[in-house]
Q: What sequence folds into this?
């Protein structure tokens, strides 16, 4: 915790999965997080779970063990790193209609993942400007415009979204620009780009992939984050992370 020599563990994860016991699950997870002195946000919805938590490493690990004892979350893919400071002021555990609001009930990511491209493959495609099938590669940023302004992939498409629920309408306007290309949707941690990829496929865009694990996984798995410029905006006290997952110089200034 801040003020001690012990590092702070920060963990983020999401899983689209059917949840029919949301309120009781929320209560159990909140009680365990408070008992461990954790801070951050856990969102639970009928479509899945999204979490970003921080605290003493042993407490974070204990909370995760409790979560992953539930078979629905046993294989949860985690993005984790350490910090010297606690990036969250409060603990919030909420039950909501969606873990990321899109207002499109037909999109059910818990029924099956969108096809994904991993960080190493994407870096290679970005070097070539094409996917392995030879199609032109385009990166589609599914984040809000102010997040894009902090940093983005070189040449990425930015529809200046004010909120993620604007994405379906923006696609209706711009769909023709994507045809015949391999489209890789991306966001911070993977939630928005997964929903976006499913919606684009439903709308008839032929070659759509999500960036597996989002920008944060790309920072972890692609050394130096090739073809990325700037910082990754995050919704906590750090505000921005550099490609090494450290607090950005701009934020510290």
A:
């Amino acid at each position: 915790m801040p003020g001690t020599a012990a590092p702070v563990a920060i963990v983020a994860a999401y899983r689209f999965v059917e949840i029919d016991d949301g309120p009781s699950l929320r209560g159990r997870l909140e009680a365990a997080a408070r008992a461990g002195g954790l801070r951050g946000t856990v969102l639970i919805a009928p479509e899945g779970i999204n979490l970003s938590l921080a605290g003493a490493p042993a407490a974070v690990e204990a909370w995760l063990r409790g979560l992953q004892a539930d078979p629905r979350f046993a294989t949860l893919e985690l993005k984790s790193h350490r910090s010297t400071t606690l990036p969250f002021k409060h603990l919030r555990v909420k039950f909501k209609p969606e873990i990321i609001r899109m207002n499109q009930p037909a999109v059910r990511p818990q029924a099956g993942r969108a096809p994904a491209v991993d960080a190493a493959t994407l870096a290679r495609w970005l070097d070539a400007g094409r996917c392995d099938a030879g199609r032109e590669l385009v990166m589609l940023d599914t984040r809000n415009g102010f997040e894009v302004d902090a940093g983005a992939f070189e040449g990425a498409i930015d529809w200046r979204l004010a909120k993620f629920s604007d994405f379906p309408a923006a696609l209706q306007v711009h769909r023709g620009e994507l045809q015949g290309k391999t489209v890789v949707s991306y966001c911070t941690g993977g939630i928005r780009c997964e929903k976006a990829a499913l919606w684009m496929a439903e709308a008839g865009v032929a070659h759509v992939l999500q960036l597996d694990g989002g920008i944060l996984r790309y920072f972890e798995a692609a050394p130096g984050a090739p073809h990325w410029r700037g910082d990754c905006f995050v919704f906590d006290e750090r505000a921005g992370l550099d490609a090494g997952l450290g607090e950005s110089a701009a934020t510290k200034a």
Q: What stands out?
A: The longest helix spans residues 22-35. Confidence is low (pLDDT under 50) at residues 1-5. The chain has eight helices and 14 strands. The radius of gyration is 18 Å.
